[in-house]
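A quick aside before the break. I want you to see a complete sequence-to-structure record at least once, exactly as it would be stored in a machine-readable document. Don't worry about memorizing anything.
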Amino acid sequence: MLQIAATELEKEESRRETEKQNYLSEHCPPLHVPGSMSEVQELCKQLHAKIDAAEEEKYDMEIRVQKSSKEALLGSKHKVCMDLRANLKQVKKEDTEKERDLRDVGDWRKNIEEKSGMEGRKKMFESES
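That is the input. The structure line, written in tokens, reads:
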């Protein structure tokens, strides 16, 4: 039984190899490397043009796939609402005593200006005593 399987694998392997050779002979002509420098440069230009065409096609296919997958995820009828402010909740802020006290204190720069200089120090001592 193992011998039969081994022979079948060998036949399959040889069949694949012949198919590969046939495909390559049909689609890939043998490479002819020219002798002069100008011919080599021309060959390189042709190869680069073919590469550019293949890259453009690949890019177009990728964009199509991304677009189709996005439409499949979101659905064709679904529209994305980008108005974020409309989706926010409004919350009323309660006025607490601490917040009122903080607002009543005022600007900290005014307190520093009042305490700066000799008059400010004098006021500090007068207020403490």
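Two observations worth writing down. The radius of gyration is 41 Å. The chain is about 75% helix and 0% strand. We'll return to this after the break.
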